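[job 0412] stage=complex_fold ligand=pyridoxal-5'-phosphate status=START
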Amino acid sequence: MKILPFEMERYQSLWENIVDYNLSESGVHPLQLNELISHDELARLVELPLGYNQTNGSAELRRLIAGFYSNAGKENVLVTSGSAEANFLNTLFLLEPNDEIALMLPNYMQIWGLAKSLGANIRPFHLKPNHTRWEIDWDEFDRAVTEKTKLIAVCHPNNPTGARLQEDEIERILEKAASVGAWVLSDEVYRGSERDGNLSLSFYGSYDRVIVNGGLSKAFGLPGLRIGWVVAPPKLVDQLWGYKDYTTISPNTLSDHIAQIALQPEKREKIFQRTRSLIRKNFQILENWMGGKAGLFQWIPPEASAVTLVRHRLPVSSNDFVTKLRDEKSVLIVPGEQFLMPADYLRFGFGTESENLTAALDLVSEFIAEKFEK
Ligand SMILES: Cc1ncc(COP(=O)(O)O)c(C=O)c1O
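[job 0412] stage=complex_fold status=DONE, emitting structure tokens
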């Protein structure tokens, strides 16, 4: 198998640490270690032998992760190196050449790229703007899922739209999956970053072929720990663990311990409050900015996450816009083309520090004025 380039990840890797303002990031401004742990905890951490970790994640960490889902125990959890590894292991394990996968689009394009590389048959179903919400095109969904569907993959809350599925929508997907015996893979790494403070419902728990991937990178603001997870039936967890023996062997030992602190229920809630309050504050900044642009931008506000997919009326493709903006103003935005969206969509990440966001948006305004308002 030859793996296709992951266009967005490589684009971000190349530019995110070079530009002055990075609005390509989908998470929130990360926590520092000293904001997360106490002196006593730090003292214990520095005495930790840096040996191999328990390779599927420590029992305590798996117990804490399971506590974030109803009806899960530590036997349902595999700790991975970021949710990216969770997506990788699952896709590799579940899909063979010519297998059918029904895939939600737009999406973080990792599962799309891996499924395509594996020679699977991708049948997309789209989130479409419907007044105030992004909603699944159910006709397309019903066509995408067939008797041959092996896997239905969703991203909820969704990257890049920030859309969140409702209970009846989750049930509808699960019912359809059950009717054809398909697995459901729900990437829920943004769960906990809801603007209204109501934790998104998880797909986990009501159908025996559900796999949920999650991690600390987005709603927890801890991407540098590289802690992700799979929550699934024990047999599948065990099989995926077998694949993990070939990838990263074990989660990072220090990260496993720090993650145990972040996932204590009280701490977890505090972290989510920080994330949501930054998202609310910055959403306001972005909304005001967008409002001042007199119809140039059209958007459906995100329900969760610090990303939003915005439609523009500029006489230029998003690819060209972001390239020139990056080169001339040192601001990085992701073009919609990288999500297989039409060329008039842009993904703004607004989870950075508020002053940064304001300064970056001022530069985008300046750029638009110089190029298009003369
Ligand atoms: C939906 C989604 N899943 C997975 C990932 C990978 O994140 P990580 O490996 O840091 O958990 C990302 C990163 O942007 C994402 O947006």
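DSSP finds 13 helices and 14 strands in the chain.
[job 0412] exit 0
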